[in-house]
Specification:
The chain folds into 2 domains: 161 residues, no CATH class; 88 residues, no CATH class. 80% of the residues lie in helices and 3% in strands. The protein has 11 helices and 2 strands, in the order H-H-H-E-H-H-H-E-H-H-H-H-H. A two-stranded parallel sheet has the order 1-2. Helix 2 packs across helix 4, helix 2 packs antiparallel against helix 5 and helix 5 runs antiparallel to helix 6. The radius of gyration is 25 Å and the shape is elongated.
Length: 275
């Protein structure tokens, strides 16, 4: 009730700098708390996750005849990477919370229509971010198999966990963030900053930039991880372009209707004055 009353008395969501910083602190605290709770769950999921990550290494030993092992470099390395994996799992589990807190922090500065756009962004961004993480999980074994396939015959792969785990984390974050880019593109169109026709005219540049981004984001020299990232990204981008074009047509029809209604009202008023 208090929130509704405050919103009614302050419809534009304006607040003093001190209140703004206080709200930022509260929302960061909620984000941190959600990540901490997710990280606690991550500690329990650490062993199953590490066993799944090590599965490609076991397949190398079983299928190729080469020796491949994961090694911890120091005494405390295992504990350090347990924390890293737990926090990473916590970030994934808490993604709906911190994405919502980001939206809620921006909302007071937006108009009602822009709030609906931001809420729609949140509803689409969370599944896409998780889908990117899931796709990275599927691509990871292929990337490991491809990269270790360059090992000469008679040699072994003694892979340090300090290299192996960051490789997986970078791959996952690259896929997750990349899947959010088309949503940002559509959001800019909804806000009237970027038109669908402008994007459509530069589709060749878009394809080129997506391929360049996929090549840079995929943490490896293999073409397969780049391919797995570029194809869904291009599909999402073209879907976003199609939605932008449809939204521009809907906006143009609405504007034409408003103009026609305004002209009709003006003609009617002039006719009355003439009588």
């Amino acid at each position: 009730m208090a929130l509704r009353k405050g919103r009614t008395s302050n419809p534009e969501g304006r607040m003093a700098l001190k209140e703004h910083l206080k709200e930022l602190r509260n929302r960061l605290f909620k984000c941190a708390l959600a990540v901490v709770i997710g990280s606690i769950a991550g500690f329990f999921l650490y062993n199953p996750v590490m066993q799944e990550l090590a599965q490609p290494i076991e397949e190398i030993n079983n299928n190729t005849g080469r020796d491949a092992t994961l090694n911890f470099d120091g005494v405390a390395s295992a504990f350090d990477f347990m924390i890293q994996i737990a926090v990473f799992i916590g970030l994934i589990l808490a993604s709906p919370v911190w994405l919502y807190q980001l939206w809620a922090f921006v909302t007071p500065g937006l108009k009602r229509k822009e709030r609906r756009i931001a809420l729609s962004f949140l509803a689409v961004a969370v599944p896409l971010f998780l889908a990117g993480i899931g796709l990275a999980w599927l691509v990871f074994p292929t990337a490991i198999e491809t990269l270790t396939g360059f090992t000469p015959e008679g040699f072994s792969n003694f892979i340090s966990v300090t290299v192996f785990v960051p490789f997986f984390l970078k791959l996952s974050l690259a896929f997750g963030i990349a899947f959010l880019l088309p949503v940002v593109l559509f959001g800019l169109n909804m806000l009237g900053i970027l038109s669908g026709r402008q994007i459509l005219k530069s589709w060749r540049i878009t394809v080129f930039l997506v391929c360049v981004f996929a090549a840079m984001a995929a943490p490896g020299a293999d073409a397969m991880s780049m391919f797995y990232l570029a194809v869904p990204l291009l599909a999402l981008f073209f879907v976003a372009i199609g939605l932008c074009v449809l939204n521009d047509k809907r906006r143009a029809r609405r504007m034409a209707s408003v103009v026609a209604e305004t002209e009709a009202t003006a003609d009617k008023a002039s006719h009355i004055e003439g009588l």
